[in-house]
Amino acid sequence: MDRQSNTAIMLIGHGSRRETYNSDIEGMINYLKEKISIPIYLTYNEFAKPDWRSLLNEIIKEGYRRVIIGLVFLGRGNHVFRDIMGELGIQRLNSWEVSKISGKEVEFYVTEPLSSSPLIGLALYYRLARALDALPTLEYTEDPYEIEERSMNYILPNLDVKDAREKRVIGKAVFASGNPEVAKYLKVTNLDMGIEAIRSESEIVADVKMVSVGIRWKKVTCMIDDERTKELSKELGITRAAAAMRLSIGQGGKVVVIGNAPTALIETIKLVKQGVDIPFIVATPPGFTNAKESKEALIESKIPSVVLTGTYGGSGIAVAIINEIIKMAMEG
């Protein structure tokens, strides 16, 4: 056996004559089994079966020589030090030690009891806070249309933008970011081209899935996870985002939405220089390397676009912008 296949986990709880205690522990074990691939055995120190001592001997007979003892105890009392560590001949928690069991050398790792984790304190706090009704009561609306309407009623009057359609697009970017300062960094160039491209049912190409899944349009392509993208990226030594743009834009005629990857924008600009016609670009990739420079290059190129300049950006902003453009196109 290798080290992984030679390892088993044995969880030890106190045990109780009352079955409800044991069933509660079993529910937790089922959760762990979904997360960890090596064998996990639930045992008890007393009052319930299987007894950890008997099961340990069975595990050793099966050939396991590395055993993680997961202590399902709150604190470091006699059951931990005397009954478990004492009988195993183990001196320290959270470290591997060798002990001889039934004539066999076995490596043991005994975990700390649960009370040392802040998550236990947090779980107890939640229970006490609910009893005391100490958790805050929020007054809010769950209606998505009301949320958007109330937000835009706050945002739009505070935007100093003359063109009504540009104001709507910038307002949605502010809404998506939660930051009114974003309006200062948005550059809109020839918005009509984007609206007309959507009206003519142009396909939309997105740089990453976070963008593509949010776009409310019937023709959206994202090739970031395509095997051909991975192969091209490796072959040319470029990012997957750049390779995805090269493959998905093709001969052009598609609206491009980039909310995450500056290299996707760089590749898109390269394609335009090589003769590919792109009617409109939404570019909001954030970052401190390539992001600012690529967006400045897009503005200088005069390609119809909405650009969030500087290091600001994000996928949610890109999605909000293109969805508002789609909405305006559908309004006629």
From TrEMBL:
<protein>
    <submittedName>
        <fullName>Precorrin-8X methylmutase CbiC/CobH</fullName>
        <ecNumber>5.4.1.2</ecNumber>
    </submittedName>
</protein>
<comment type="similarity">
    <text>Belongs to the CobH/CbiC family.</text>
</comment>
<dbReference type="GO" id="GO:0009236">
    <property type="term" value="P:cobalamin biosynthetic process"/>
</dbReference>
<dbReference type="GO" id="GO:0016829">
    <property type="term" value="F:lyase activity"/>
</dbReference>
<dbReference type="InterPro" id="IPR036588">
    <property type="entry name" value="CobH/CbiC_sf"/>
</dbReference>
<feature type="domain" description="Cobalamin biosynthesis precorrin-8X methylmutase CobH/CbiC">
    <location>
        <begin position="146"/>
        <end position="328"/>
    </location>
</feature>
<comment type="pathway">
    <text>Cofactor biosynthesis; adenosylcobalamin biosynthesis.</text>
</comment>
<keyword id="KW-0479">Metal-binding</keyword>
<keyword id="KW-0169">Cobalamin biosynthesis</keyword>
<dbReference type="InterPro" id="IPR003722">
    <property type="entry name" value="Cbl_synth_CobH/CbiC"/>
</dbReference>
<dbReference type="GO" id="GO:0046872">
    <property type="term" value="F:metal ion binding"/>
</dbReference>
<keyword id="KW-0456">Lyase</keyword>
<dbReference type="Pfam" id="PF01903">
    <property type="entry name" value="CbiX"/>
</dbReference>
<dbReference type="Pfam" id="PF02570">
    <property type="entry name" value="CbiC"/>
</dbReference>
<keyword id="KW-0413">Isomerase</keyword>
<dbReference type="GO" id="GO:0016993">
    <property type="term" value="F:precorrin-8X methylmutase activity"/>
</dbReference>
<dbReference type="InterPro" id="IPR002762">
    <property type="entry name" value="CbiX-like"/>
</dbReference>
